[in-house]
Prior knowledge:
This protein is an alpha+beta fold. 15% of the residues lie in helices and 52% in strands. It has a single domain (32-181), classed as Porin (Beta Barrel), CATH 2.40.160.
Amino acid sequence: MKKKLYLGFIILTFIAGELFAQESVEVEKAKNTIALSLGSSVNYERALNNYFSLLAEASYTFYFIGDEWAAAVKGRWYPWGKTFFLELGLGYGNTLGYLASAAGFVTFFLSFGQVNLNKYADMRIRGFLIGPALGWKIDIGKANGFVLPINLGIDFTIGSPNKESLFIDFVPYLKIGLGYSF
């Protein structure tokens, strides 16, 4: 009787193969994401693998003393292959950033309001943009559906407001949006 039980157990083991009580099913990560942020940006992200992706973005950032138009190609690195990422973007920026805005306001206040602030609108920096950032792309509900991208970064624009001198200005930003991965 014991031999029949052992033989039956061996046969069932070969037939069943690998069965586990709690089998973990790995969901394949979506390759594409389209997102629209409240910081007024539209982007398309293409995952190369679980750790790296490429991103194309067009954005408009507005704050109380300046603004920025930008178009950039970005690379994202997901160190743990999940939601947290580090990003570096290169592109074109048209910026009235903090430094130019601060120069205009300081001149305005030192002159006791005698200087027209509109002349500092011509201090827009147009040129090469470098944008480091960090953020999270959080799945809402099930994986590979809606995502909540949160992005905190700073855009540095290197260019010239008057074609005579080189100037660097910056715009920090916080973008919170809604996207869809497919």
